[in-house]
Predict the 3D structure of the following.
Amino acid sequence: MEPRDLELLSEYLAGGLDAAEVRAVEERLRGDAAFAAALAAQQERIAILQAAARAGTKSELRAVLREADARQARVRVLWAGAAALAAVLLVLLLIRQPKPDVRQLALAAVEPYPIGQIRGVADARLPDSVAAAYQAGRCAEAQPALQALIARHPEDPLLRMYAADCFTQTGQYAEALRLLRSLQQDPLLADAAGWRIALNEILAGGSPRALLDSLARSPHYKAREAARLRDALP
Amino acid sequence: MGIRSTGPAADPMPNLTAQALREQLSQGHTHGLRQVFEETHRYCVRTLMHKTGCDASDAEDLYMDAVLIFRENILSGRLAQLSNLRSYMYGICWNLWRDLNRSRSRWEREQNEIERQFWLAAGKSETPFEPEDADLVRERIRRVTEALGRLGQTCRELLNYVYVEQLPQQEIAARMGFANANVVKVTRHRCYQQWMKLIDSPEIPAHGTS
């Protein structure tokens, strides 16, 4: 191609010609196949120049936006982590109820053994005044009379049971346990004595897990309470 | 002007306008574009994969092409409003996917990014190339880009300003520190001639002979 034609075409492609010059070029393009082919070749080269520029810009953009993407990903991970943590905490809050205080449970479970009259069993040895004091929880008043009765009738298991309950209610757990253990072989009182032994051991600071477990697994009249106490043990 | 990663990284700009974005981009800043990216990237990539069946890598590549076009439309003023950005960006992605498929059906899968951009541009319009010319076109792309690489930095920059960014001569003179538009014209012609000479010269060996 003539240098002048190359200059003309480069000027034409750069938009540097005035209207008359553009018309002249376009007129020549219609009649001059070689000139038109030269223009097509130049256009292709310009298109490649543009493609190269776009490729470069794309690469730069990719690098810049990858940073943004990585930041977005970090934010997403942080949010996901925070959400997961919140979910775990919520679940823990929902499922983890505070363990009840086993001593408080044991204290609440303490109750006086029903006296003979109430149970329909003759209990002629217990005077009405002592029975009334015992039943009303006035153990300080009932205990001396009970001890005197036990001294006179050491074979009477019910008197020992009443006295044990009074010891429990006045915080004398060791004395209570001593009496209760003497009742474990009594066929009528063994169940009640076992339950009371467990309560007194807890109140004395012990952890009678095996005893409570065996009570909970047996058809004991306090099986459910025994299970609750066992589960509340530290 | 090159692209710089500048500006606030996480400051939300809910009232970003096309005008503000144009000013940022023309100064080479990208924080507004990053906001557009954060707003549209995941949506476009996922939707492309879902609707076209392309893989993640292709979808990412198409999305980056779409960002390129978005940037050009902002810079040229063709896009004056930034409403419904996700749909707008996805529309570009979809058209690019169609153009790319058309190109690949005529030629083959592109071997590099310059080829990809060339095929995409050709796919948008009635191309003068025939399918059997793919290797010839590929060889010409190689020669032209290699010749560009051998030009000096000033010439490459000038040719970009003239033929890619199509800036007015006065602005080019100001950016490049030339005395006036006439100097731009003379220098541009000298660079163009040098580039053409390099393309046709035996200094750039034919493919497979270097």
